[in-house]
What we know:
The chain is 52% helix and 18% strand. It is built from seven helices and five strands. Strands 2-3-1-4-5 form a five-stranded mixed β-sheet, with helices on both faces.
Amino acid sequence: NAVDELARLARTDGLTQLNNHRTFQERIVQEVRRSERSQSPLTILMIDVDYFKTYNDTHGHPAGDKVLKTLAEIMMRSLRNTDVVARYGGEEFAIILVDTPLSFAAKVADKVRTAVRQEPFQGADTSQPGGRMTVSIGMAGWPIHGKTAQALVEAADKALYDAKRAGRDQVKMAGGTT
Length: 178
């Protein structure tokens, strides 16, 4: 049991209890291979908390940690058991939507974005633009935006930064808008 617990800890983010970056990297490679074999769609979402540094600086790291934990809970409630959610790093998260075409993934991404916006995070009314905590989301689908795990992550990450540059609190698809 101790060995199992160590293995779990090595794959899990200690704060949010989501998969960690390393686990995400392993799973995206596995899921791309599975999509190649089955010719089934796969979409990844890269999510970043808007103005998180401002929130953290204003309210302190314990409050920021609470935000990250709540975001993890929101994502888990918004997704299927088969989807893979990970804390990618800092205030960035990644989601692998298995067997999911871009059209459905766009709805899922907007569901997550809306749920975050509606959550009454303590202190957001005084520290966040518009008084709400928001997220920006970039999405990319296999094989349209990339045929390898690395290419998909890069495409979704670029779309994420397109969403940030376009004003935040929105979803952008690689190579276009949603």
